[in-house]
Design brief:
This protein has 270 residues and is mainly α. The protein is built from eleven helices and two strands.
Length: 270
């Protein structure tokens, strides 16, 4: 049975990120296009691609680890004779069972940890995206004019929060695109063509969805605001009846606050 950990030169306890880094490093060195079509390097590349396909996916890796453990337990006797792993002795069987349980627990714990990391990464994309759409709708509907009515210190604070919010939002979007979307660049195909966990959307689709979502949210907010005009009429000092440039300040600030609160709640929950 092939040992994919040895093929990728990583520890059996390596994280998915470490496994992917090892795969990409070897893929750059062994890809046939970079070795004049060498049959030897082509076989080596096929091996590392197969190893990455199995170890890069938490579920297939869990199944493989169990098979590897079974093989090691029963067929790894150094002298080819009876081993402690195959002994029918009562104490040997008890020890073997303890080893199995310990290794299985390690596999399950790692799988749960991988799924948790994936869930957290997804939340870090979903929460800011939803907050951006909601904030665009609310701002277009209510049209607050906080900046215009603030003193100088208030304006400085709003601008600072806006800059921090834009940087934070851009970071979240960038991380989400890299983790959950695939690009169209040809030069990446030799490394990402064997991605075991298929990314659901193309980068172009995700970008279009984000732009369309912001546009629709803002448009619906404007429509609702124009129909009802409750706040501009009742509180003209706080809300405007027309669009103003300062409206761009508020969505990034709102996303920043929502994400900070979500991060704090996540830590408390842990």
């Amino acid at each position: 049975m092939a040992n994919y950990y040895e093929i990728l030169k990583v520890s059996p306890k390596a994280s998915r990120t470490e496994i992917k880094s090892a795969y990409r490093r070897l893929a750059r060195r062994l890809h046939p296009d970079k070795n004049q079509g060498s049959e030897e390097t082509a076989r080596a590349f096929a091996q590392i691609a197969e190893a990455w396909e199995i170890l890069g996916n938490a579920k297939s890796r869990s199944v493989y680890d169990k098979r590897l453990l079974h093989a090691q337990m029963h067929y790894s006797s150094s002298d080819g004779g009876d081993s402690l792993f195959e002994s029918s002795n009562t104490h040997a069987r008890r020890w073997r069972q303890m080893v199995y349980e310990h290794r299985y627990n390690e596999i399950i714990d790692r799988m749960i940890a991988e799924e948790r990391r994936e869930s957290i990464a997804l939340q870090k994309v979903i929460f800011p995206t939803v907050a951006l759409f909601v904030s665009c709708l609310v701002v277009a509907m209510l049209r607050p004019q906080i900046f215009e009515n603030s003193a100088m210190i208030g304006k400085i604070l709003l601008v600072s929060l806006f800059i921090a919010g834009v940087i934070h939002l851009w970071g979240r979007i960038k991380d989400g695109l890299e983790r959950f979307t695939y690009g169209e660049e040809i030069h990446e195909s030799i490394l990402d063509g064997n991605e075991p966990k298929t990314k659901p959307f193309s980068r172009a689709f995700a970008t279009g969805f984000l732009i369309l979502g912001v546009g629709l949210s803002f448009g619906i907010g404007l429509l609702i605001g124009n129909i009802f005009q409750i706040f501009p009429t009742s509180m003209p000092a706080m809300f405007s009846d027309s669009l103003k440039p300062e409206f761009v300040f508020y969505p990034p600030i709102f996303v920043l606050f929502v994400d900070v609160m979500h991060g704090f709640a996540s830590r408390v929950d842990v």
